[in-house]
Amino acid sequence: MSGFFASLQHATGGLWPYFAVLLFGFLPSEIWRWASVFLVRGLSEDSEILVWVRAVASALLASVVAKLLLSPSGALSVVPALWRWGALVAGALGYLASGRRMIVGVVVAEAAIIAAGYWAAG
């Protein structure tokens, strides 16, 4: 390593990649999150703009889940499709069984997909 990166390595003790993620990944999105908090302060939860924002956020999340299920990449590609779908079903059942608590559904689905990946790789 030489030049700029070598000086960063020396100055930060090897932590410069984490600082880069913080500076270029976290902070730009965090600014918009705080701006949205102040912009929606007077809006009703049932306002048309917030209903639209929730719909777009849900559609984006659904598209990411569909991509992971139908066309996975990386380590997830070794997990058979039936097991990936099974993890989705397990998460949905965990969500419903817990009285619609999102965190339970996410944790159950994560545990199922991690177990499936472990068994598929072993």
Polypeptide structure, described:
The protein is mainly α and 122 residues long. The chain contains 5 helices and no strands. It folds into 3 domains: 1-39, no CATH class; 44-71; 72-122, no CATH class. α4 runs antiparallel to α5 (102-121).
The percent range for helix content is: over 70%
Number of strands: 0
Helix count from the secondary structure assignment: 5
Sheet-strand content, in percent, reads under 5%
What's the shape?
Answer: flat
**Global structural class:** mainly alpha
The N- and C-terminal alpha carbons lie at a distance of 38 Å
Radius of gyration from the CA trace?
20 Å
Task: Look at the structure and give the mean pLDDT.
Answer: 88
Q: Tell me the series of helices and strands, N- to C-terminal.
A: HHHHH
Spell out the blueprint of helices and strands.
Elements (H helix, E strand, L loop, with lengths): L3 H9 L3 H24 L8 H23 L10 H17 L4 H20 L1
Concise summary:
With 122 residues, this protein is mostly helical. Helices cover 76% and strands 0% of the residues.
Keywords:
122 residues, mainly alpha, 3 domains, 76% helix
